[in-house]
Amino acid sequence: MEKNILLISFWLLTLTIIIPSSPGNAQSSCNGPCHTLDDCAGQLICINGKCNDDPEVGTHICSGGGGGGGATLSPSGGECQQSGTLNCNGKAYPQYTCSPPVSSSTQAKLTLNDFSEGGDGGGPSECDDKYHDNSESVVALSTGWYDGGSRCGKMIKITADNGRSTTAKVVDECDSRNGCDQEHAGQPPCDNNIVDGSAAVWKALGLDVDVGVVQVTWSMA
């Protein structure tokens, strides 16, 4: 009996030495798995089971500001992940702090916007604090592509499926994080892949403004 107890004790001691202790206090970095805020390192927060930038704090630890427009990449590569949800008038809208990577032919949805005073956007354009006539070829870009204003005043080339192309100046952000308030004229957050163009842009592309949304590609001009 005493011999058996000694053998069991020796066996348990051997297991303790061989099997490493669980890293209970280990914290995940960008896109690492998480269940609570404490599971993420530094200023990262747990969003949909993965550690990511905190949109309220405005951290860009997981997002780069280069040609990709600050997109947060998933482990499978290339995709911008939803950062939260905004409930507006009983409907839930996704929020994004990033957009898909910018390339020489970036897929996007072209929407129609009135940049004039009293138009769709509420206040003046963010880049120059001015209103713009509908005859001007101007656009607003989704938050990730707007990239904190780094593309303000720059020209982009937009190409429609009909083969026609035009250039337009970036003057505003199509906010993918906030909306449904006075500042955004009651409109919900933009999708993360929007080029919001003036009537002049639509006309130059030979598109019907009554359609409202069309698939296009864009690149820096």
Describe the structure.
- InterPro entries: Kiwellin-like, RlpA-like_sf.
- Belongs to the kiwellin family.
- By secondary structure, the protein is of the alpha+beta class.
- Among the domains are: 28-62, no CATH class; 106-220, RlpA-like domain (Barwin-like endoglucanases, Beta Barrel), CATH 2.40.40.10.
- The chain has helices at residues 2-18, 143-146, 199-204, and strands spanning 45-47, 50-52, 84-88, 91-95, 106-112, 138-142, 155-160, 165-174, 194-197, 213-220.
- The protein has a 6-stranded mixed barrel. A two-stranded antiparallel sheet has the order 1-2. Strands 3-4 form a two-stranded antiparallel sheet.
- A hairpin with a 2-residue loop joins β1 (45-47) and β2 (50-52).
